[in-house]
Amino acid sequence: MDKYLKSIRNGLYVILAIGILTICKVTSSVSINLILSVFIFLMMLPFVTALEKIHVKGFIATLIAILLIIIIVFLVVWFILYTVNQLLSIIPAYTHRFTFLDAYLMNLIKSMRDVEDADSVMKLFNIDWANTLVPILRSVSASAIEIAKNAVVTILLAVFLLLERHTLIPKIAAASPNKNNPEKASLMLDRINRQVSKYLGAKFILSLVTGILFYLIALFTHLDLAFLWGVLAVLLNFIPTFGSIIITALTILMAVVQFLPNWTPIIIVAVGTIAVQMIVGNIIDPRVQGNQLNLSPFVILVSLSIFGYVWGIIGMFLAVPIISILQIAFANMDSTRGIAIMMSSGSSLKRRMKAENRGRKEKEYDDVLFPQGKTT
Predict the structure, then answer these.
(1) What pLDDT band is residue 376 in, cutting at 50, 70 and 90?
(2) 242, 300 in Cβ contact below 8 A?
(3) Sign of CA dihedral 211, 213, 216, 218
(4) CA 344, CA 375: separation in Å to the nearest integer?
(5) What angle do CA 30, 204, 141 make, to 5 degrees?
(6) 40: Cβ–Cβ under 8 A, 6 or more apart, which residues?
(7) CB atoms near residue 194 (< 10 Å)
(8) Residue 324 in contact with residue 344, Cβ under 8 Å?
(9) Distance, CA of 235 to CA of 258 (rounded, Å)
(10) What is the CA radius of gyration of the chain?
(11) Rounded to the nearest 5°, which phi and psi values hold at 317?
(12) Average pLDDT, stretch 15-34?
């Protein structure tokens, strides 16, 4: 009977998760502001708490955090507009580069297969890059007002959360279903705040290092839009796996368009950017972060796909912190602890099993050398 009820409960959990994701997708224009405000609150809370510890009044600390949020949002909007304007200004200058690249690729294709009827790769694949790219860039620039409006709503939500920070955790603890242990909810929320803050802080530092290195590589090779590639490397590095691949591919593609047929700077850009991603992502990042998140790579990739579908590119940025929060919440409830275990990387379980197997083998070895009933 208990197994039957457990199966029903697990099925209801799945239906609930699908229902929540569906609602978030349908109401994405509203829900994305809400989820962003929560993460801004989580990022600003340690900063505000640190200011209060050095005897800065709560209202002043909150005001400083609000000003910092406004500055960050302003810089993001400015960067979007700056990038669009830079790209719009450089497109006419790159017309001859695209023409040359088109002819170069066409000759390469003709050397491998018979395409006598075609004299252009753009025509062969029906690509009109100018008439496609320019309207997209102008639409992004025109949507800056909409971005600013959403930013204002998000900031206001984050501000109210900061103003209620001293009563928020007690209210959640009081509303917790675990009435016998109200401190458990407070401890869980504190752990969520610390883990997400540490992850975002470490990720920002590593992303900043990656961005600076990309910028220096672009400067060294005289690659156009060096500042753009550096900033994009910082931003896209927050998207696990896919972000690193995207920014590296874009930078190399830009080098090909700009420098072909001179392969030396292209090779330098390719080797340099790939080496940076390999060293920072595969060597430095694991040493800095360690097993802090304890999340399965498969779960991370699935979450990127799901939240990317629900909230677009912003969902991909928030995917890892969201599932980290869910894992902590699941681990603190008996009914969902199994889900938290399945979401984990399993490294601690693997070490435990190795230790148990080693102990079992040592015991078997002792039984062979010193059988029961015999003494040495």
Answers:
(1) very low
(2) no
(3) negative
(4) 46
(5) 50
(6) 69, 154, 155, 158
(7) 14
(8) no
(9) 23
(10) 27
(11) -65, -35
(12) 87
Q: What pLDDT is attached to residue 268? A: 94
Percent of the chain with pLDDT over 90: 10
Amino acid 232 reads L
Taking phi over 0 as left and psi of -120 to 50 as alpha, with beta for the rest, 314 belongs to alpha
Q: Looking at residue 115, what is its pLDDT?
A: 54
3-state secondary structure of 135: helix
Only one residue has tokens 């009933």, namely: 373
Would you give the end-to-end CA distance of the chain in angstroms?
Answer: 54
CA quadruple 87, 91, 93, 99: dihedral, nearest 10: 140
Of residues 220 and 94, the one with the higher pLDDT is 220
Give residue 220's pLDDT: 94
Q: What is the mean pLDDT of the chain?
A: 77
- Residues whose CB falls within 8 Å of the CB of residue 102, separated by 6 or more in sequence, listed in order: 120, 121, 122
* pLDDT surpassing 80 at residue 123: no
Higher local confidence (pLDDT), 287 or 273: 273
Q: How far is CA 209 from CA 21, 171, 369, in A?
A: 34, 40, 56
Name residue 21's amino acid.
L
Contact between residue 259 and residue 270 where contact means Cβ atoms under 8 Å apart: no
CB 220 within 8 A of CB 235: no
The first and second tokens of residue 38, run together, are: 């929560």
Residue 220 tokens read as 């060294």
Contact criterion met (CB below 8 Å) for 266 and 256: yes
CA–CA separation, 182 vs 44, rounded Å? 25
Please, which residues have CB within 8 angstroms of residue 50's CB and are 6 or more apart in sequence? none
For 249-261, how does the pLDDT look when each residue is reduced to its tens digit (9 = 90+)? 999 988 988 888 8
DSSP 239: S
What is the C-alpha to C-alpha distance for residues 128 and 121, in angstroms, rounded to an integer? 10
How far, in Å, CA of 209 to CA of 202, rounded?
A: 11
